[in-house]
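U., I forgot to send this yesterday:
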Amino acid sequence: MSFAKDPTFGNWYNAVDKNAGEAKITHSISYFDKDNHQINFDGGYAEVMSLNNGSQNRQERVRVISGGHSKSILGSSVTNHADGLYSDIQNDDPINWKWVADENKRQELHDDWVNSTNSSELEKYNWDITGSPNSVFGAGLIVLDGNELVQEESTINKNGTLFPITWTITTSNLFGTKDLAEPTEPTKPNMITVAVPEVNVQRQKLQEVVPAPKETVVTPNPIDDKTKQPIKGVTIDPITVPGDHKTGDKVEIPTSGFPEIPGYNKPQGDKITVTIGENGKVEIPYAPKETVVTPNPIDDKTKQPIKGVTVDPITVPGDHKTGDKVEIPTNHLPEIPGYNKPQGEKVAVTIGDNNKVNVSYAPKSVPSGSSSANTTKVTSQNSTNTNSQTKSDKLPQTGETNNKLSIIGSVMIGLVGLLSVFGFNRKKRESK
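Result:
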């Protein structure tokens, strides 16, 4: 143990066995005046300084046994624990010296400290030297009670090897000032006169505090109005609506924030009523755009309109224009005598002027076998009429002509039969 003549310089102690891992002393401190009367410091303060926490798990501590109680000091690395005052961080390491504002400078000092370089810069900023303005960084506070302070001072090294000597200071001179000036009576300030303006104070009725209205955030989800399925690739930002709503509630949201979606009609009006679904989602129906076309049946061979036939307009999906190709259902098309209706469920057409679409109907063909039979029949019935047979041979082989010839032949056969009956009766009467 070593003590300085000036108690503000503190004391030094060391362990008998440096490998013991801990050195500990009990230190009783009392002060006397010039008349040898013990001084009572009840209500006073003392600072414990130079409480180091070094680079080799070495930690210095002070614990008050009697005569006061310990506290932490704002800005110090030393904190008050149940077992005394000590620092939990390596306050010897310059990297923790926040009063050195330049981080690069702190790093340089840290490197000097790690390499045990006793540089002048390191001494300049070091808090653990006499008179340092930053000595509070390694200090704790003791609130005194009575005329004797008893404290336990210790050094602990978890590596087992103790530092050769430990320095502890218990003083009321935190920043190292040695000579304290006698207090002097303060100078009485000059009296001044200040004119105080009149203040007209009016009482105002306190306004009632109205709570902010509750709101609900909903997320619009565009869907196809026909299929009721979400429209892919389209998102709409969330919208805040007034009121505290829950799933299943109906709310109105403005349509101004809805985007235009190709192939769909945006909902009309300033607002739309929707129902809140799971997770605050609301479905926004977008009607698919459609085009109304009017089928115009034409002869597939002549490409001319088939007269006397009209077809009701058909609505096809999509926003189409003249020249676009679309498909229309064939079940909407009528049967036309003498023509074959387009086959399949749908037929592809091209939109023309005024949204008309030409639909090709193929003319029905007359079987060649039936025409020959009629011609043969007509020929066989008119074998005695050379002129008629010759004319029939020159006529086109159509069903209509054959039918007419068949009718004429039948009439002629009937007439021949009647004439034969009349002739037979006449001969019979003459024979009598």
